[in-house]
Amino acid sequence: xxxxxxxxxxxxxxxxxxxxxxxxxxxxxxxxxxxxxxxxxxxxxxxxxxxxxxxxxxxxxxxxxxxxxxxxxxxxxxxxxxxxxxxxxxxxxxxxxxxxxxxxxxxxxxxxxxxxxxxxxxxxxxxxxxxxxxxxxxxxxxxxxxxxxxxxxxxxxxxxxxxxxxxxxxxxxxxxxxxxxxxxxxxxxxxxxxxxxxxxxxxxxxxxxxxxxxxxxxxxxxxxxxxxxxxxxxxxxxxxxxxxxxxxxxxxxxxxxxxxxxxxxxxxxxxxxxxxxxxxxxxxxxxxxxxxxxxxxxxxxxxxxxxxxxxxxxxxxxxxxxxxxxx
Length: 327
Hints:
Layout: E1 2-3, E2 10-16, E3 26-34, E4 42-52, H1 57-75, H2 81-101, E5 110-111, E6 113-119, E7 122-128, E8 132-137, E9 140-143, H3 150-156, H4 198-203, E10 207-208, E11 214-218, H5 220-223, H6 228-235, H7 240-253, E12 260-266, H8 275-315
Antiparallel strand pairs: 1-3, 2-12, 3-4, 4-5, 4-6, 6-7, 7-10, 8-9, 8-11, 11-12
């Protein structure tokens, strides 16, 4: 893909070390591309990562995740986005695990990641860990990703009441992360309803975004202290950058101890181009180009014929002459 400065989305991002005084081990990045020189489809890739493993180690793992996954996405053609994301996540996880083995002080380092990839108007997501992606549409908030935590598994199995999750002692026990000894598979479920099966959630990939849709990528520093029901009222009616800062300020006001990162992607109130619409435009352009070329050729032929007729009447003597009678 070809990097471009102009993204088809409005973008805002804020990160904060939190109120616990710990070093900020969160990382994020947003990149905008065109698929190729000949394909004008616009693409935006966003990622947030939350490092784990203590001083410096978590920061290194999160940095590696953001840089490596973003680079592998940029080097791809965008034709199989879910395969590309899964491969990038697995390659990055193995690289983090290898780097940890090279330095005993970094043993156990790892990171979460949440990736949102918009190609044209189609959204593709992948995640590992408990960093989240939300979709805010028509005033309603949907958590698209599923946490890979002990408490989430307990809720899904009916062992734990969802109301007791926030204060449970195992709330931060992550069951899947980049850098683990077992290479994690990217979670490509896109949950649009709480009662969906995993198969239904995966089939939601390629969701078409609408003008006014707002995507939120965040680390657990936000969701630890801010309820889902509080997110939409906190950003309603605000400028995008102000909205991102408002969410971080709300987490800080709740004495959020963990690092806090918020990335907002807003679909503008114009239709995003998709492959079909671009191809239709190409066909229309090609039609008018051929029509203009045809008209130019017809005019040229008419001029040539007119010139030949004028030449014949002006300089060539007639083949049949009128006889002259003599007395």
